Structures are given as structure tokens and as C-alpha cells.
Amino acid sequence: MLTRRKLLVTSAAAAVSAPAIVRSAMSAEASIKICNFYALSGSTSSTGKTQFDGVRLGLEKLSKDYAMNVEQVTVDSEGNPGRLLPKIINELQNGTRLFAGGSLSSESLAIMPEIQKAGGVYVAATGADEITGKNCNRGTFRWLVSTYSAVQQTIAPLIEQFPNAKRWYTITPKYVFGEALLTNVTDLLKKKGLEHVGNSYHSFSESEFSGYLTNAVSTKPDVLVFLNYGSQSSKALRQAIEFGLKDRMKIVLVWSGGLEQYEEVGADLLSGVYLGCQYDHQIDTPVNKEIVAFYQSKLGKPPTYSHIAGYVDNYLILEAAKRCGSSDPAAIIKTLEGMKYEGPTGAEEVRAGDHQCLKDYYLLKGKEKSKMKSGYDFVDIVSHGRSFQPVEETGCKMT
């Protein structure tokens, strides 16, 4: 599936109302084309459709803020790198050079070299370490923190909080994202002198987790760690709680899907579970309050992490274009490298050496239903912070 839509805002009023940070040499009549791709069909489509809603509404706001004519192209990745790649090559052949999105790390890794070869810019919405590590390139950037950062900001705080939790068991999807999380968890446990008592791999299509949970219980872990994502992690979490595991061990989902997943699982099951996430609508920063208010006005509820990821990925491209006064990819790349800006999580920065955005990752805890202040108040923020390897340790050799 491929669609095109234009958001045109060129009035003097729109130009005046844009924040001072975005006014520059780029005129109100400037035109820019961005291709966004997400899984709008296939097994990960529920997340992909939410991401696209974030893009659609986000570009509505951004096009007004930037007084810019934005042509937005949507490509359905189908959650399949092999099917996505020819679609991206076709867009490149049609002259598109600015891209954002991705529902799976394998998608990002498949299309990065082609966009780079064509001299384009790609802001990835996926988490495998390789994207800003050994597979990094000059044209690829990422707002989401990597799996390394996510593990450091979820597992490490829990190790400190529960010093008697010596035995850890992991359940992992067998593809690049899951493998990256697992490597980082096992490395951290080894460094801390803790025991990784076992791991269960599952396929990308798995929906029944009782066997894996039985294996986990047999090792008598203190902590059960889910390294899967989206609907799979929701199903695995639900089955674990139905097995009564929440009363027998700590449970942590390292990379949660945010509010949309919390609504799916429900407060009764989520209570007491620890969750890692890139974003939460409760984050108390001026930019986040503005963005939340906008999405609230459009959706009737706060935005999810998927909404915000889609918003920020496109924001980075438009902000860089405005600052350099050009839609030329080479100029945008040069502007993005080292760019500092106020983002949803506060002061954020694009690190020049590997093109990783430096931002916080959040450890959350599901709250009891009786303590929820609203229908969207599922979690408390336990902690947040930044953990990034030095560029020379990421494996990135910029090309």
C-alpha cells in the first residue's frame, strides 16, 4: 500500500504563529516530501496503525508550526523487510529522499543501505543496537534509544531496588530485536554477578506461552524478564499473570508499547508489573505538555509512545530543514549532526558520532486500579535516565 497526502499551510498567520525556534531562511512556500513506512498490515499492524496515526496528526501540527507544504507518502511495510525493500527502492527511484519510520528493526536494517546509497536521510523508529552501531551510516538517525540503553534503565534499577533477586529468567523473540535485548541483559547480569537461570526463545508468530512459562517456573527465578514486544508481550504477560506468577516473582517487560498496551492488558493485570518505555504522557516538560494537549484534542485521550515516536521522527527532519533553510538531504544531515533541541523528554541531542539521539528511557510500574486518577493513569514513573555507550564502543564506523 502506498498513499500520498499533502498538508499545505502557507498563510501569513501560520508563519507568524510558528515558534521562534523554527523561523529561518526557509520560506513559508517551501515544499518538502517525507516517506513514512509502518506495518499497516500483517502481525504487527496494530502497532503500525497507531504509529501512522501519530504521523498523520503530527504532520498536521508540524506543517502549521513550520508553515511548510509537506507532501507525506505512506508505505505499508507489511512487517516484512523483503516486501518493504522494493517499495523503498521505488520511492527512491521516484525522487524521494527523506524517510522516517519502521515497525521492526529488521526493516530498518534492510532499507538503511539503500537510502544511504541514494544520498537520502532516514530517521529510524526501531531499537536494535546495530542501527546506530555496526550498521550505522551517514544518512541514518534514531530518536528511540537502543536496546542497550533500555536494558540499562530497566534491569539495572531493579537490581539495585531488589538486591535479593539473584535469579533471572528471560523470554525472548528469536529475531534481531529480541537477540539484542537478550545480549544486553545477559551481559549486565554477568557484570553484576547475578544468575541467568534460563531463556526461552519463541517465534515471531507465537501466541501460546504456557510452555515457556512452565520452563521459567521450573528454574525458580526471582525475576521474569519479557523481551518481546507488542501483542506478543501482551499475550505473554497476560498468561503469566493468569498462571499466578505475579505473586511468585517480579515481572518486568523491558520494552513496552506504552499506553495502548496498558489499555489492552488492563489495570488489574498490570498492577505491580514493571515496564520499560521510551515515553509516557505524564512526562513533565513544556514540549510534552504541548504535544499531549494537541493529541488529546484530536484523539480524546493522551498520546501513546507510538504516536510520539512518529511525531518526533518527522519533527527532526522538519526542524533540521528549517534550521538549514533547505530540503537538501546533505544539508539536513549536516544540521542534524550534533543538533540540540527541546523534545518530549526534555533537552535532547543528536550525537554526531553515531546519530543516536540522547534522551531518557523510563522505568514504570503498573498501579492498582483503585489508585488510578483517570482512565489513562495506569503507571507510575519509577525512574528515568540516560545510559549510552561511548561511540567507540558501539561498533559504529560512520560511512
Share of residues in helices? 40-55%
* Amount of beta strand: 15-25%
Largest sheet: 7 strands, mixed
Strand order of the largest sheet: 8-7-9-10-11-15-16
Q: Which runs of at least 5 residues are low in confidence (pLDDT < 50)?
A: 6-25
Instruction: Give the name of the CATH superfamily of the largest domain.
Output: Response regulator
Classify the secondary structure makeup into a structural class: alpha/beta
Distance between the termini: 32 Å
Number of DSSP helical runs: 15
Q: What would you note in describing this structure?
A:
This protein is α/β, with parallel strands linked by helices. It folds into two domains: 2-144 and 283-358, Rossmann fold, CATH 3.40.50.2300; 149-277, Response regulator (Rossmann fold), CATH 3.40.50. The chain is 40% helix and 21% strand. It contains 15 helices and 16 strands. The chain has helices spanning 12-17, 45-65, 81-93, 105-117, 147-152, 155-161, 176-191, 210-218, 230-242, 259-265, 267-270, 286-299, 305-324, 329-336, 391-394; strands at 2-7, 31-38, 69-76, 98-101, 121-124, 140-142, 167-173, 195-202, 223-226, 250-253, 274-277, 340-343, 346-350, 357-358, 361-366, 379-385. The strands form three sheets. It has a seven-stranded mixed β-sheet, sandwiched between helices. The chain has a six-stranded mixed β-sheet with strand order 1-3-2-4-5-6, sandwiched between helices. Strands 12-13-14 form a three-stranded antiparallel β-sheet. It is globular, with a radius of gyration of 21 Å.
